[in-house]
Amino acid sequence: MKDRGMQVLYLLAVDPIAETLADPNSYGFRLQRSTADAIEQCFTVLSKKRSPSWILEGDIRSCFDEISHKWLLANIPMNKTILHKWLKAGFIDKQVFHSSLAGTPQGGICALRGAWWYCLV
User: Considering the entire predicted model, what is its pTM?
Assistant: First the structure.
């Protein structure tokens, strides 16, 4: 519980910064943005005479399950000590601790919000 509480506090601090730096056409897991907003933006962009004819959508399988901790520590602009601790926190299942060698925990506080590239856990 303490770790999740710390994640919430960190998120409250970095979320406003992340929102100012975020791609204006990114809609997933962001405050004040919805699927309807994404659909509206697609319509606006695609309804022009010289609009693209194709839309490419993809999903990288196991991207967040396999992403390198070393890469995250080198490329994510946040306090490296906090990020390292969160990435290495692991998880407990049926009273057995499982370490985290790669990837990011799913369902973490920060992963669900706009500051994902700051927190990722």
Answer: 0.60
